Amino acid sequence: MRKLLEFLNRPAPRGNFFSRAINAAPFQVLVCLLVTAVVVAAAVNEYATNKYLNVGYTPDQPVAFDHSFHAGPDSVLGLDCRYCHNYVDKSGHSNVPTTNTCWNCHSQVKTDSPALALVKKSMETGEAIRWVKVHKVPDYVYFNHAVHVNRGVSCVECHGRIDQQVVVGQQKSLNMSFCLDCHRNPEQVLRPVDKVTDLAYKAASPAQQTADGTKFVHDWKVNPPQSCSGCHR
Amino acid sequence: MAHAHDSSSERPAILDKVRPAELPRSPLILNNRGFHWITDKVCGIVEEETPLWWKIMFGVALFVASFTFIGLGYLVATGTGTWGLRSPVGWGWAIVNFVFWVGIGHAGTLISAILCLLRQKWRTSINRAAEAMTIFAVCCAGLFPLFHVGRVWFGWWLLPLPNQNGIWPQFRSPLEWDVFAVSTYFTVSTLFWYMGMIPDLGTIRDRATTWWRKAFYSVLAMGWRGGNRQWSNFEMAYLLLAGLSTPLVLSVHTIVSFDFAVSNVPGWHTTIFPPYFVAGAIFSGFAMVLTLMLPLRAIYRLHDVINQYHIDNMCKIILATGTMVGYAYATEFFIAAYSGNSFEKFAFVNRAFGQYAWAYWIMVSCNVITPQLFWFKKVRENHSLVWIICLFVNVGMWFERFVITITSLANDYLPSSWGYYSPTIVDIFTFFGTFGFFSVLFLLFVRFLPLLPMAEVKMVAPQADPHAH
C-alpha cells in the first residue's frame, strides 16, 4: 500500500504525459467497443434465445413410446391424436393418457414385451407412469388447448410433426413472438377443424391458405388477443 | 411627439441640463481580481490538502448514502410491497422523489444553456456547480422509477430493443416518453458539463506536481492545448450544445408532467401541468443551487467571484418562478370551479381541506409565501436567511409533488375505493439516503474537478475587455 502511494505520488513527468501515439487511442477504443457490441449482440441473438436453448429438448421417457409407429397418416397404426390425448378438444389442459389407455390394446398386444414392463407394472400397482414433460410454457402463461384446437389451430403448429418422431422433442421455439406471430396473422395457420389432427395437411397453395384462413377468421369470429392479459392473466 | 419631430434638427435644451443617469453594471468579479488570482483560487480547491471538513462530510455522506442502497437491496430481495404502495395509491414516495430530484436537476442546464444563449454573463460563476448538481440530481431521480418497476433486472425492457417476445415498449405511454426524456437530458447535460470542463482540466493538468494527478487530469483533459483552433472549436461546440439543451430544459419536465396530465385522474388531467411543472422545476433547481453554493462560497472564500449580484439574480429568479407556481395553484382552483366538473372540483377542495390538507398548506406556505420575502433587498443580502428560505423552497417543492401524486390517487372517483397512503420505513430510508448519494457525488466533484469554470470566469472579468480603459 505504501509502495503504491509512493508510486502514485512520485513527481509528475515534465512535458506531456502521453506520447503522440496516444492520439489514435480514442479511435481504437471506439472501434473495439463497436466490434464488442456487435459480437455481443449477435451472440445474444443466437444463443440466449429459445430457438437455441429449448428447441431439440428430447428427454428420455420411462417408456419408449414411439409416436411415429402409433399415430398419424404415415404410421403403421394411424391412430388419431385424440385417441390418447382425448381431452385436448374439451379441456384447457391436454392430457397425457393414463396407463388404461395403453392397456386398451396392450392387454392383448405384445403383453410380454420387455418394453412394456413398466406399463404392466403401472397397471398392476395403479401407480402412474412418470412421463417427462417436453413442451413447457412459463407458469405465468395461460394456454388453452381446447380453444385453439376447436378453432382450426393444428397440433402441428406448436408441436411440429410429432407423428414422425420416434422420441418426442421440442421442435418449435414456443417463445412469446412465436405465439404472437399467429395471434397477429391467424389466417396464415387456420385450417378446417376436421384437419386439425392431420399433421400432414397443407392448403393447396399459400394463396389458398390465406383465402381459407381469412374465411375461417371471419366465419368463426376468430379474434386472438394481443393484449397482455390475454395470456398473462 | 409632434413637438419632438419639429425640433429634431436642434437638440432640446433641456437634455443638456438633465443628463441621463449612468447605470453602471455591477462588476461580476469584485476587488479587481486578475486572471492569476482566479486560476490559483479554483485550482487551489483541487490542489490543497484534503480539508478536515471534507473528510467528515464525505464519511457522513457515505453513511447516509448506504441507507438508499440498503433500502433498495431490501426492496429487490423482498418485493415492491415493502414500499407503502397499496391500492388505490400505486404511486407513492418513489414517484414523488423522482419528480423532486428531476426538478432540482433543471437549474443546471437552464443556467448553462438558456442563460448562455441570453448572454447572461453572471452565469459563469455558478454554471459548473449547477451542472454538476443537475447530473447528480438526475442520478438520484433515476433510481426511483428504475426500482419502481419491481423487477429491476428487467429494467432494459424500457428500451426499444429487439427481443424474442416480439413486442416493443408501449410508445403511447408517457412513462416511456419519460425514459427518453430523462436519458436524453442526462446524456446531453453530462456532455455539456464535461466538455465545458476540458480547458480547466487542462489547466489543472499543467499545474500537476505528482504522477497520479498528471495521469488523471491528462486523461480527462483529452489533450487540450489551448490553441486557437481548439478554442474556436470549443466555442462552437459549446454554442451548439447550448442550443441543443435549451429545448431539453423545457421538454424534460413537460414530459414528466405528462406522466400525470395524460391520465384521466381528477387533479392530474389538466393542460396547465407542463408550464406549471417547468416553473416549479426551475424554482426548486435554483433553490438547490443556492443551498449548495452559499456554504461553498463561505468555505472557499469565493466572495469576489460569487458576489451579491449573483445571489440577487438567483433570488429574483426564485421569486419570479415561485410566484408563477403560486399563480398556477390559483389557476388550478379557478379551472376546477369553472369547469363545472364535480370530480375536478372535489379533487381540489380535497387537496386544501381533505385528509392531506396538512401537506397542502406546508406546500403553499413554503412555495408561495416564503419566496415573497425576496422582494426585500435586506432579505437578499442576509445570506443565512437566503439559505434558510431556499431550504423551505426545497421542502415545499417536495410537498408539491407529494400533494399532486398522493391526494389525487387516494381520493378519486369512487368513494368506496378511497384510501390513505403512508410511506413505510423503507420508503423513508431510501429517500433519506439519496441526499447522501447526492452529497457523495457532489463532494467528489468539489474535491477533484474545477468548481468554477476558470476560463469562462476570466472571459467576463473586466480585464478581459480590451476596450475597458
Q: What's the layout of helices and strands?
A:
The complex is a heterodimer of chains A (233) and B (469).
Chain A: H1 2-9, H2 25-47, H3 50-53, H4 67-70, H5 81-84, H6 99-106, H7 117-125, H8 145-149, H9 155-159, H10 176-184, H11 206-219, H12 228-231
Chain B: H1 2-6, H2 13-17, H3 35-47, H4 52-78, H5 93-104, H6 106-117, H7 127-148, H8 174-207, H9 211-221, H10 228-261, H11 273-299, H12 308-339, H13 342-353, H14 357-369, H15 377-381, H16 383-410, H17 425-448, H18 454-460
Helix pairs in contact in B: 4-17, 5-7, 5-11, 5-16, 6-7, 6-10, 6-11, 7-8, 7-11, 7-17, 8-9, 8-10, 10-11, 11-12, 11-16, 12-13, 13-14, 14-16
List keywords for this structure.
heterodimer; A: 233 residues; mainly alpha; 12 helices; 42% helix; B: 469 residues; Formate dehydrogenase/DMSO reductase fold; 69% helix; globular; disordered N terminus
Can you describe what's shown?
The complex is a heterodimer of chains A (233) and B (469). Chain A is mainly alpha-helical and 233 residues long. Chain A has a domain at 68-95 and 134-231. Chain A is built from 12 helices and no strands. Chain A starts with a helix and ends with a helix. In chain A, 17% of the residues are buried. Chain B is mainly alpha-helical and 469 residues long. Chain B has a single domain, classed as Formate dehydrogenase/DMSO reductase fold. In chain B, 69% of the residues lie in helices and 0% in strands. Chain B has helices at residues 2-6, 13-17, 35-47, 52-78, 93-104, 106-117, 127-148, 174-207, 211-221, 228-261, 273-299, 308-339, 342-353, 357-369, 377-381, 383-410, 425-448, 454-460. The longest helix of chain B is centred in the middle third of the chain and has 34 residues, at 174-207. Chain B has 18 helices and no strands. The chains are: A mainly alpha (233), B mainly alpha (469). Chain A binds chain B through residues 7-13, 16-18, 22-23, 26, 45, 49-51, 173, 175-178, 180-181, and chain B through 162-167, 205, 208-215, 218, 222-223.
